[in-house]
Protein backbone atom coordinates (compact mmCIF):
# COMPACT_ATOMS: atom_id res chain seq x y z
CA UNK A 1 0.00 0.00 0.00
CA UNK A 2 1.24 3.53 -0.84
CA UNK A 3 -0.29 6.97 -1.31
CA UNK A 4 -1.43 8.14 -4.70
CA UNK A 5 -1.63 11.79 -5.74
CA UNK A 6 -3.78 12.81 -8.70
CA UNK A 7 -3.09 16.23 -10.17
CA UNK A 8 -5.34 17.85 -12.73
CA UNK A 9 -5.50 21.18 -14.53
CA UNK A 10 -8.94 22.73 -14.22
CA UNK A 11 -10.40 24.53 -17.25
CA UNK A 12 -7.29 24.07 -19.41
CA UNK A 13 -9.04 25.42 -22.49
CA UNK A 14 -10.21 28.55 -20.67
CA UNK A 15 -6.64 29.25 -19.54
CA UNK A 16 -5.16 28.68 -23.00
CA UNK A 17 -7.79 30.45 -25.07
CA UNK A 18 -8.61 33.36 -22.76
CA UNK A 19 -6.76 35.71 -25.12
CA UNK A 20 -7.13 36.57 -28.82
CA UNK A 21 -3.38 36.47 -29.33
CA UNK A 22 -2.21 33.24 -31.00
CA UNK A 23 1.29 33.56 -29.54
CA UNK A 24 -0.12 33.71 -26.02
CA UNK A 25 -2.35 30.72 -26.77
CA UNK A 26 0.76 28.81 -27.81
CA UNK A 27 2.66 29.92 -24.72
CA UNK A 28 -0.20 28.89 -22.44
CA UNK A 29 -0.41 25.49 -24.12
CA UNK A 30 3.33 25.02 -23.64
CA UNK A 31 3.04 25.87 -19.93
CA UNK A 32 0.38 23.19 -19.46
CA UNK A 33 2.16 20.54 -21.52
CA UNK A 34 5.79 21.13 -20.60
CA UNK A 35 6.10 23.24 -17.45
CA UNK A 36 3.43 22.21 -14.94
CA UNK A 37 3.94 18.45 -15.09
CA UNK A 38 7.64 18.39 -15.91
CA UNK A 39 9.70 21.38 -14.76
CA UNK A 40 7.72 22.38 -11.66
CA UNK A 41 6.82 18.81 -10.75
CA UNK A 42 10.53 17.99 -10.64
CA UNK A 43 11.37 21.14 -8.68
CA UNK A 44 8.65 20.41 -6.11
CA UNK A 45 10.03 16.89 -5.66
CA UNK A 46 13.48 18.42 -5.11
CA UNK A 47 12.09 20.81 -2.48
CA UNK A 48 10.49 17.94 -0.54
CA UNK A 49 13.20 15.27 -0.84
CA UNK A 50 16.33 17.44 -1.23
CA UNK A 51 17.30 15.79 -4.51
CA UNK A 52 15.74 14.26 -7.59
CA UNK A 53 16.22 10.72 -8.85
CA UNK A 54 15.47 11.17 -12.55
CA UNK A 55 14.79 7.47 -13.10
CA UNK A 56 11.86 7.68 -10.65
CA UNK A 57 10.36 10.44 -12.81
CA UNK A 58 11.12 9.01 -16.26
CA UNK A 59 11.11 5.20 -16.06
CA UNK A 60 7.30 4.95 -16.18
CA UNK A 61 7.43 5.62 -19.93
CA UNK A 62 10.13 3.17 -20.98
CA UNK A 63 9.89 0.59 -18.18
CA UNK A 64 6.18 0.51 -17.27
CA UNK A 65 6.48 -2.86 -15.50
CA UNK A 66 9.06 -1.49 -13.05
CA UNK A 67 7.33 -0.30 -9.86
CA UNK A 68 10.10 1.30 -7.80
CA UNK A 69 7.94 2.18 -4.83
CA UNK A 70 7.53 -1.54 -4.11
CA UNK A 71 11.29 -1.60 -3.56
CA UNK A 72 11.38 1.22 -1.01
CA UNK A 73 11.65 4.16 -3.42
CA UNK A 74 10.19 7.27 -1.69
CA UNK A 75 8.18 8.35 -4.74
CA UNK A 76 7.69 7.73 -8.44
CA UNK A 77 5.55 8.89 -11.35
CA UNK A 78 2.55 6.73 -12.20
CA UNK A 79 1.91 8.56 -15.47
CA UNK A 80 1.76 12.07 -16.90
CA UNK A 81 -0.38 13.12 -19.83
CA UNK A 82 -3.30 15.14 -21.14
CA UNK A 83 -3.04 17.91 -18.53
CA UNK A 84 -2.94 15.62 -15.50
CA UNK A 85 -0.57 13.38 -13.57
CA UNK A 86 -0.61 10.47 -11.15
CA UNK A 87 2.21 10.14 -8.61
CA UNK A 88 2.96 7.62 -5.88
CA UNK A 89 4.52 8.36 -2.49
CA UNK A 90 5.59 5.98 0.26
CA UNK A 91 4.80 8.54 2.97
CA UNK A 92 1.53 10.48 3.20
CA UNK A 93 3.13 13.55 4.79
CA UNK A 94 5.65 13.78 1.96
CA UNK A 95 2.79 13.54 -0.53
CA UNK A 96 1.01 16.46 1.15
CA UNK A 97 4.25 18.49 1.27
CA UNK A 98 4.71 17.86 -2.45
CA UNK A 99 1.22 19.16 -3.27
CA UNK A 100 1.91 22.26 -1.17
CA UNK A 101 5.25 23.01 -2.85
CA UNK A 102 3.95 22.32 -6.35
CA UNK A 103 0.91 24.56 -5.84
CA UNK A 104 3.08 27.42 -4.52
CA UNK A 105 5.37 27.21 -7.56
CA UNK A 106 2.43 27.38 -9.95
CA UNK A 107 1.06 30.44 -8.17
CA UNK A 108 4.42 32.19 -8.62
CA UNK A 109 5.54 30.98 -12.06
CA UNK A 110 2.26 30.05 -13.80
CA UNK A 111 -0.30 32.60 -12.55
CA UNK A 112 -3.80 32.01 -13.85
CA UNK A 113 -3.44 28.23 -13.97
CA UNK A 114 -6.00 26.48 -11.76
CA UNK A 115 -5.21 23.00 -10.56
CA UNK A 116 -6.85 20.40 -8.35
CA UNK A 117 -5.32 17.53 -6.40
CA UNK A 118 -6.47 14.42 -4.57
CA UNK A 119 -4.61 12.12 -2.25
CA UNK A 120 -5.52 8.60 -1.16
CA UNK A 121 -4.29 5.10 -0.45
CA UNK A 122 -3.44 2.99 -3.51
CA UNK A 123 -3.29 -0.78 -3.54
CA UNK A 124 -0.71 -1.81 -6.15
CA UNK A 125 -1.93 -5.42 -6.12
CA UNK A 126 -5.39 -6.92 -6.64
CA UNK A 127 -7.41 -3.85 -5.65
CA UNK A 128 -5.53 -1.31 -7.80
CA UNK A 129 -8.45 -0.50 -10.09
CA UNK A 130 -10.88 0.16 -7.22
CA UNK A 131 -8.48 2.35 -5.22
CA UNK A 132 -7.62 4.32 -8.35
CA UNK A 133 -11.31 4.81 -9.11
CA UNK A 134 -11.86 6.11 -5.55
CA UNK A 135 -8.99 8.56 -6.05
CA UNK A 136 -10.52 9.84 -9.31
CA UNK A 137 -13.85 10.32 -7.48
CA UNK A 138 -12.09 12.30 -4.73
CA UNK A 139 -10.45 14.47 -7.38
CA UNK A 140 -13.84 15.15 -8.99
CA UNK A 141 -15.26 16.15 -5.58
CA UNK A 142 -12.31 18.45 -4.88
CA UNK A 143 -12.69 20.14 -8.26
CA UNK A 144 -16.35 20.83 -7.56
CA UNK A 145 -15.77 22.06 -3.99
CA UNK A 146 -13.31 24.89 -4.36
CA UNK A 147 -12.00 27.21 -7.06
CA UNK A 148 -8.78 28.80 -5.81
CA UNK A 149 -7.72 32.38 -6.49
CA UNK A 150 -4.66 32.09 -8.74
CA UNK A 151 -4.10 35.70 -9.82
CA UNK A 152 -3.53 38.88 -7.84
CA UNK A 153 -6.95 40.55 -7.48
CA UNK A 154 -7.56 43.85 -9.23
CA UNK A 155 -7.88 47.02 -7.21
CA UNK A 156 -9.35 50.38 -8.07
CA UNK A 157 -5.90 52.00 -8.15
CA UNK A 158 -4.30 49.55 -10.65
CA UNK A 159 -4.44 49.82 -14.42
CA UNK A 160 -5.97 46.95 -16.40
CA UNK A 161 -3.91 44.79 -18.76
CA UNK A 162 -5.41 45.10 -22.24
CA UNK A 163 -4.50 41.46 -22.99
CA UNK A 164 -6.12 39.77 -20.01
CA UNK A 165 -8.16 42.29 -18.03
CA UNK A 166 -6.06 41.60 -14.91
CA UNK A 167 -3.85 44.20 -13.18
CA UNK A 168 -0.82 45.45 -15.09
CA UNK A 169 1.99 44.44 -12.76
CA UNK A 170 5.00 43.23 -14.83
CA UNK A 171 7.19 45.05 -17.37
CA UNK A 172 7.47 42.77 -20.42
CA UNK A 173 10.75 42.87 -22.38
CA UNK A 174 9.71 39.95 -24.59
CA UNK A 175 7.33 42.06 -26.68
CA UNK A 176 8.42 43.88 -29.87
CA UNK A 177 10.21 47.15 -29.00
CA UNK A 178 7.24 49.33 -29.98
CA UNK A 179 4.80 47.25 -27.89
CA UNK A 180 6.79 46.91 -24.65
CA UNK A 181 4.69 47.81 -21.66
CA UNK A 182 3.44 46.74 -18.26
CA UNK A 183 1.16 43.73 -18.62
CA UNK A 184 -0.37 41.19 -16.23
CA UNK A 185 1.78 38.40 -14.78
CA UNK A 186 -0.60 35.92 -16.50
CA UNK A 187 0.16 37.30 -19.99
CA UNK A 188 3.85 37.72 -19.16
CA UNK A 189 4.24 34.03 -18.21
CA UNK A 190 2.64 32.94 -21.51
CA UNK A 191 4.72 35.31 -23.65
CA UNK A 192 7.95 34.24 -21.95
CA UNK A 193 7.72 30.69 -23.35
CA UNK A 194 6.46 31.39 -26.89
CA UNK A 195 9.87 30.68 -28.45
CA UNK A 196 10.11 27.33 -26.65
CA UNK A 197 6.58 26.43 -27.83
CA UNK A 198 7.46 27.33 -31.42
CA UNK A 199 10.63 25.25 -31.25
CA UNK A 200 8.70 22.21 -29.98
CA UNK A 201 6.24 22.19 -32.88
CA UNK A 202 8.99 22.90 -35.40
CA UNK A 203 10.69 19.71 -34.19
CA UNK A 204 7.50 17.76 -34.94
CA UNK A 205 7.35 19.30 -38.42
CA UNK A 206 11.03 18.55 -38.98
CA UNK A 207 10.39 14.90 -38.11
CA UNK A 208 7.52 14.71 -40.60
CA UNK A 209 9.70 16.18 -43.37
CA UNK A 210 12.66 13.90 -42.62
CA UNK A 211 10.66 10.70 -42.05
CA UNK A 212 8.85 11.15 -45.36
CA UNK A 213 11.79 12.56 -47.31
CA UNK A 214 9.76 15.60 -48.33
CA UNK A 215 11.80 17.78 -50.70
CA UNK A 216 10.66 21.25 -49.65
CA UNK A 217 11.07 23.07 -46.35
CA UNK A 218 8.02 24.24 -44.42
CA UNK A 219 7.31 26.22 -41.29
CA UNK A 220 4.43 27.20 -39.01
CA UNK A 221 3.28 30.76 -38.52
CA UNK A 222 2.27 32.52 -35.34
CA UNK A 223 0.08 34.92 -37.31
CA UNK A 224 -3.53 34.00 -38.10
CA UNK A 225 -3.44 36.21 -41.22
CA UNK A 226 -0.73 34.01 -42.80
CA UNK A 227 -2.64 30.73 -42.93
CA UNK A 228 -3.16 30.87 -46.68
CA UNK A 229 -6.19 33.14 -46.96
CA UNK A 230 -6.62 34.89 -50.32
CA UNK A 231 -6.11 38.65 -50.29
CA UNK A 232 -9.14 40.84 -50.97
CA UNK A 233 -11.52 37.92 -50.37
CA UNK A 234 -13.56 36.85 -47.39
CA UNK A 235 -10.97 35.57 -44.98
CA UNK A 236 -11.85 32.74 -42.63
CA UNK A 237 -9.98 30.49 -40.22
CA UNK A 238 -11.08 27.11 -38.90
CA UNK A 239 -10.60 26.38 -35.21
CA UNK A 240 -10.59 22.62 -34.71
CA UNK A 241 -10.93 20.94 -31.33
CA UNK A 242 -10.72 17.12 -31.17
CA UNK A 243 -11.09 14.97 -28.07
CA UNK A 244 -10.95 11.21 -27.55
CA UNK A 245 -14.11 9.34 -26.60
CA UNK A 246 -14.54 7.79 -23.13
CA UNK A 247 -10.82 7.79 -22.37
CA UNK A 248 -11.24 8.80 -18.69
CA UNK A 249 -13.32 5.68 -18.14
CA UNK A 250 -10.72 3.59 -19.94
CA UNK A 251 -7.99 4.92 -17.63
CA UNK A 252 -10.04 4.21 -14.51
CA UNK A 253 -10.72 0.64 -15.65
CA UNK A 254 -7.04 -0.33 -15.88
CA UNK A 255 -6.37 -3.19 -13.48
CA UNK A 256 -2.66 -2.61 -12.82
CA UNK A 257 -0.25 0.30 -12.72
CA UNK A 258 1.76 -1.02 -15.72
CA UNK A 259 -1.49 -1.24 -17.71
CA UNK A 260 -2.29 2.35 -16.81
CA UNK A 261 1.16 3.52 -17.86
CA UNK A 262 1.06 1.63 -21.15
CA UNK A 263 -2.33 3.13 -21.99
CA UNK A 264 -1.09 6.66 -21.30
CA UNK A 265 2.05 6.22 -23.41
CA UNK A 266 0.31 4.45 -26.29
CA UNK A 267 -2.51 7.01 -26.42
CA UNK A 268 -0.11 9.96 -26.45
CA UNK A 269 1.93 8.29 -29.20
CA UNK A 270 -1.21 7.52 -31.22
CA UNK A 271 -2.39 11.13 -31.06
CA UNK A 272 0.98 12.49 -32.17
CA UNK A 273 1.23 9.86 -34.91
CA UNK A 274 -2.18 10.88 -36.28
CA UNK A 275 -1.24 14.54 -36.28
CA UNK A 276 1.96 13.76 -38.16
CA UNK A 277 0.07 11.72 -40.77
CA UNK A 278 -2.46 14.54 -41.13
CA UNK A 279 0.42 16.99 -41.58
CA UNK A 280 2.07 14.76 -44.19
CA UNK A 281 -1.19 14.57 -46.18
CA UNK A 282 -1.52 18.33 -46.03
CA UNK A 283 2.05 18.86 -47.27
CA UNK A 284 1.49 16.39 -50.11
CA UNK A 285 -1.46 18.48 -51.27
CA UNK A 286 0.41 21.80 -51.17
CA UNK A 287 1.18 21.74 -54.96
CA UNK A 288 -2.58 21.52 -55.67
CA UNK A 289 -3.35 24.54 -53.47
CA UNK A 290 -1.59 27.21 -55.48
CA UNK A 291 -4.73 28.47 -57.26
CA UNK A 292 -7.09 28.66 -54.32
CA UNK A 293 -4.77 29.45 -51.41
CA UNK A 294 -2.15 32.15 -50.94
CA UNK A 295 0.71 30.41 -49.19
CA UNK A 296 3.33 32.70 -47.68
CA UNK A 297 7.09 32.26 -47.76
CA UNK A 298 9.56 33.11 -45.00
CA UNK A 299 13.31 32.39 -45.00
CA UNK A 300 12.80 30.22 -48.12
CA UNK A 301 10.27 28.08 -46.28
CA UNK A 302 6.61 27.69 -47.21
CA UNK A 303 4.28 28.68 -44.37
CA UNK A 304 1.79 25.88 -43.82
CA UNK A 305 -1.93 26.74 -43.67
CA UNK A 306 -2.26 25.01 -40.30
CA UNK A 307 -0.94 25.79 -36.82
CA UNK A 308 -1.09 23.26 -33.94
CA UNK A 309 -1.86 24.74 -30.52
CA UNK A 310 -2.44 21.69 -28.29
CA UNK A 311 -1.29 18.11 -28.83
CA UNK A 312 -1.60 16.30 -25.53
CA UNK A 313 -3.02 12.93 -24.52
CA UNK A 314 -6.18 12.46 -26.57
CA UNK A 315 -6.78 16.19 -26.86
CA UNK A 316 -5.76 18.22 -29.91
CA UNK A 317 -6.53 21.75 -31.06
CA UNK A 318 -5.27 23.44 -34.20
CA UNK A 319 -6.17 26.37 -36.39
CA UNK A 320 -6.12 26.33 -40.19
CA UNK A 321 -7.29 28.24 -43.22
CA UNK A 322 -11.10 28.16 -43.10
CA UNK A 323 -11.62 25.79 -46.03
CA UNK A 324 -9.25 23.16 -44.63
CA UNK A 325 -10.74 22.66 -41.16
CA UNK A 326 -13.37 20.00 -41.88
CA UNK A 327 -11.02 18.10 -44.21
CA UNK A 328 -8.12 18.10 -41.74
CA UNK A 329 -10.38 17.10 -38.84
CA UNK A 330 -11.76 14.24 -40.96
CA UNK A 331 -8.23 13.08 -41.85
CA UNK A 332 -7.24 13.07 -38.18
CA UNK A 333 -10.37 11.19 -37.05
CA UNK A 334 -9.99 8.56 -39.77
CA UNK A 335 -6.40 7.93 -38.77
CA UNK A 336 -7.24 7.96 -35.05
CA UNK A 337 -9.73 5.12 -35.58
CA UNK A 338 -6.98 3.03 -37.21
CA UNK A 339 -4.64 3.31 -34.22
CA UNK A 340 -4.13 0.58 -31.64
CA UNK A 341 -3.47 1.38 -27.99
CA UNK A 342 -2.18 -0.86 -25.23
CA UNK A 343 -5.53 -2.24 -23.98
CA UNK A 344 -6.28 -3.61 -27.45
CA UNK A 345 -9.59 -1.77 -27.74
CA UNK A 346 -10.62 0.56 -30.52
CA UNK A 347 -10.19 4.30 -30.01
CA UNK A 348 -12.26 7.06 -31.51
CA UNK A 349 -12.74 10.79 -31.09
CA UNK A 350 -15.12 13.62 -31.84
CA UNK A 351 -14.36 16.97 -33.47
CA UNK A 352 -15.84 20.45 -33.40
CA UNK A 353 -14.90 22.75 -36.28
CA UNK A 354 -15.75 26.45 -36.00
CA UNK A 355 -15.11 28.51 -39.15
CA UNK A 356 -15.04 32.22 -38.35
CA UNK A 357 -13.74 35.44 -39.82
CA UNK A 358 -9.97 35.75 -39.34
CA UNK A 359 -10.41 38.98 -37.38
CA UNK A 360 -13.20 37.63 -35.20
CA UNK A 361 -12.28 37.24 -31.48
CA UNK A 362 -10.36 33.99 -31.31
CA UNK A 363 -11.59 32.96 -27.87
CA UNK A 364 -15.20 33.21 -29.06
CA UNK A 365 -14.41 31.06 -32.08
CA UNK A 366 -12.76 28.52 -29.81
CA UNK A 367 -15.79 28.54 -27.48
CA UNK A 368 -17.95 27.72 -30.53
CA UNK A 369 -15.63 24.84 -31.50
CA UNK A 370 -15.95 23.49 -27.97
CA UNK A 371 -19.76 23.62 -28.19
CA UNK A 372 -19.67 21.86 -31.55
CA UNK A 373 -17.45 19.15 -30.06
CA UNK A 374 -19.98 18.64 -27.28
CA UNK A 375 -22.81 18.40 -29.86
CA UNK A 376 -20.87 15.69 -31.67
CA UNK A 377 -20.26 13.79 -28.43
CA UNK A 378 -23.89 14.12 -27.35
CA UNK A 379 -25.14 12.76 -30.69
CA UNK A 380 -22.70 9.89 -30.53
CA UNK A 381 -23.96 9.04 -27.06
CA UNK A 382 -27.61 9.38 -28.11
CA UNK A 383 -27.05 7.07 -31.08
CA UNK A 384 -25.11 4.64 -28.83
CA UNK A 385 -22.40 4.63 -31.43
CA UNK A 386 -18.76 3.78 -30.78
CA UNK A 387 -17.24 5.65 -33.75
CA UNK A 388 -16.01 9.17 -34.46
CA UNK A 389 -18.33 12.11 -35.06
CA UNK A 390 -17.85 15.65 -36.32
CA UNK A 391 -19.84 18.87 -36.14
CA UNK A 392 -19.07 22.13 -37.93
CA UNK A 393 -20.40 25.63 -38.33
CA UNK A 394 -19.58 28.44 -40.75
CA UNK A 395 -20.04 31.95 -39.43
CA UNK A 396 -20.19 34.53 -42.21
CA UNK A 397 -19.93 37.39 -39.71
CA UNK A 398 -20.31 37.74 -35.98
CA UNK A 399 -22.59 35.52 -33.96
CA UNK A 400 -24.20 35.53 -30.56
CA UNK A 401 -25.78 32.89 -28.37
CA UNK A 402 -25.09 29.18 -28.10
CA UNK A 403 -24.92 26.82 -31.07
CA UNK A 404 -28.39 25.55 -30.09
CA UNK A 405 -29.76 29.09 -30.34
CA UNK A 406 -27.92 29.77 -33.61
CA UNK A 407 -29.35 26.62 -35.18
CA UNK A 408 -32.82 27.28 -33.81
CA UNK A 409 -32.80 30.80 -35.28
CA UNK A 410 -31.04 30.11 -38.60
CA UNK A 411 -31.37 26.40 -39.40
CA UNK A 412 -34.99 25.69 -38.58
CA UNK A 413 -37.86 26.75 -40.80
CA UNK A 414 -41.57 25.92 -40.70
CA UNK A 415 -40.99 23.02 -38.34
CA UNK A 416 -38.22 21.31 -40.28
CA UNK A 417 -34.47 21.28 -39.80
CA UNK A 418 -32.11 22.65 -42.44
CA UNK A 419 -29.14 20.74 -41.08
CA UNK A 420 -28.38 17.12 -40.19
CA UNK A 421 -25.20 17.94 -38.23
CA UNK A 422 -23.36 16.41 -36.40
CA UNK A 423 -22.25 13.57 -38.71
CA UNK A 424 -20.66 10.22 -38.11
CA UNK A 425 -17.56 9.88 -40.30
CA UNK A 426 -19.19 7.41 -42.68
CA UNK A 427 -22.19 9.76 -43.03
CA UNK A 428 -19.88 12.67 -43.78
CA UNK A 429 -18.28 10.59 -46.54
CA UNK A 430 -21.73 10.01 -48.02
CA UNK A 431 -22.56 13.71 -47.77
CA UNK A 432 -19.28 14.66 -49.47
CA UNK A 433 -20.19 12.46 -52.44
CA UNK A 434 -23.19 14.77 -52.84
CA UNK A 435 -20.95 17.83 -52.58
CA UNK A 436 -18.76 16.37 -55.32
CA UNK A 437 -21.81 15.84 -57.53
CA UNK A 438 -22.94 19.44 -56.99
CA UNK A 439 -19.49 20.74 -58.02
CA UNK A 440 -18.94 18.24 -60.84
CA UNK A 441 -18.34 19.51 -64.37
CA UNK A 442 -19.18 17.81 -67.65
CA UNK A 443 -16.71 17.05 -70.44
CA UNK A 444 -17.00 20.62 -71.71
CA UNK A 445 -16.03 21.99 -68.27
CA UNK A 446 -19.57 23.21 -67.63
CA UNK A 447 -20.99 22.85 -64.13
CA UNK A 448 -23.78 20.27 -63.96
CA UNK A 449 -25.37 22.32 -61.18
CA UNK A 450 -24.60 25.94 -62.11
CA UNK A 451 -24.28 28.57 -59.40
CA UNK A 452 -27.73 30.02 -60.21
CA UNK A 453 -29.35 26.64 -59.61
CA UNK A 454 -27.51 26.19 -56.31
CA UNK A 455 -28.75 29.62 -55.25
CA UNK A 456 -32.29 28.65 -56.22
CA UNK A 457 -31.95 25.45 -54.22
CA UNK A 458 -30.83 27.39 -51.13
CA UNK A 459 -33.67 29.86 -51.63
CA UNK A 460 -36.23 27.06 -51.92
CA UNK A 461 -34.99 25.45 -48.70
CA UNK A 462 -35.59 28.73 -46.85
CA UNK A 463 -38.91 29.51 -48.57
CA UNK A 464 -41.23 26.80 -47.34
CA UNK A 465 -43.01 23.75 -48.69
CA UNK A 466 -44.72 25.42 -51.68
CA UNK A 467 -41.44 26.81 -53.07
CA UNK A 468 -39.82 23.43 -52.54
CA UNK A 469 -42.57 21.64 -54.49
CA UNK A 470 -42.16 24.10 -57.38
CA UNK A 471 -38.41 23.45 -57.35
CA UNK A 472 -38.99 19.68 -57.35
CA UNK A 473 -41.40 20.03 -60.30
CA UNK A 474 -38.81 22.06 -62.20
CA UNK A 475 -36.16 19.41 -61.54
CA UNK A 476 -38.44 16.65 -62.88
CA UNK A 477 -39.34 18.73 -65.96
CA UNK A 478 -35.65 19.19 -66.75
CA UNK A 479 -34.80 15.57 -65.98
CA UNK A 480 -32.42 16.57 -63.19
CA UNK A 481 -31.90 14.75 -59.91
CA UNK A 482 -30.14 16.21 -56.91
CA UNK A 483 -27.36 14.10 -55.36
CA UNK A 484 -28.58 11.27 -53.17
CA UNK A 485 -27.94 10.88 -49.47
CA UNK A 486 -29.16 7.85 -47.52
CA UNK A 487 -32.93 7.65 -48.27
CA UNK A 488 -32.88 10.93 -50.24
CA UNK A 489 -32.97 9.84 -53.89
CA UNK A 490 -32.59 13.33 -55.36
CA UNK A 491 -36.27 14.08 -56.07
CA UNK A 492 -37.35 15.45 -52.68
CA UNK A 493 -35.75 18.34 -50.81
CA UNK A 494 -37.21 17.54 -47.40
CA UNK A 495 -38.11 14.15 -45.96
CA UNK A 496 -39.30 13.59 -42.39
CA UNK A 497 -38.81 17.32 -41.75
CA UNK A 498 -35.10 17.13 -42.47
CA UNK A 499 -32.82 17.91 -45.40
CA UNK A 500 -29.13 17.33 -46.15
CA UNK A 501 -28.97 19.85 -49.00
CA UNK A 502 -28.09 22.99 -47.04
CA UNK A 503 -25.20 21.08 -45.43
CA UNK A 504 -24.03 20.09 -48.93
CA UNK A 505 -24.25 23.69 -50.15
CA UNK A 506 -22.23 24.99 -47.18
CA UNK A 507 -19.63 22.26 -47.63
CA UNK A 508 -19.19 23.40 -51.24
CA UNK A 509 -17.55 26.47 -49.69
CA UNK A 510 -15.97 24.71 -46.71
CA UNK A 511 -14.31 21.70 -48.27
CA UNK A 512 -11.27 21.90 -50.56
CA UNK A 513 -12.04 20.82 -54.08
CA UNK A 514 -8.83 18.76 -54.38
CA UNK A 515 -9.99 16.51 -51.53
CA UNK A 516 -13.43 15.67 -52.98
CA UNK A 517 -14.06 12.32 -54.66
CA UNK A 518 -11.19 10.80 -52.66
CA UNK A 519 -8.81 13.41 -54.02
CA UNK A 520 -9.24 12.08 -57.58
CA UNK A 521 -10.38 15.32 -59.18
From TrEMBL:
<dbReference type="InterPro" id="IPR054767">
    <property type="entry name" value="Cas10-Cmr2_palm2"/>
</dbReference>
<keyword id="KW-0051">Antiviral defense</keyword>
<dbReference type="Pfam" id="PF22335">
    <property type="entry name" value="Cas10-Cmr2_palm2"/>
</dbReference>
<feature type="domain" description="Cas10/Cmr2 second palm">
    <location>
        <begin position="237"/>
        <end position="381"/>
    </location>
</feature>
<dbReference type="GO" id="GO:0000166">
    <property type="term" value="F:nucleotide binding"/>
</dbReference>
<keyword id="KW-0547">Nucleotide-binding</keyword>
<dbReference type="InterPro" id="IPR052117">
    <property type="entry name" value="Cas10/Csm1_subtype-III-A"/>
</dbReference>
<dbReference type="GO" id="GO:0051607">
    <property type="term" value="P:defense response to virus"/>
</dbReference>
<dbReference type="InterPro" id="IPR043128">
    <property type="entry name" value="Rev_trsase/Diguanyl_cyclase"/>
</dbReference>
<protein>
    <recommendedName>
        <fullName>Cas10/Cmr2 second palm domain-containing protein</fullName>
    </recommendedName>
</protein>
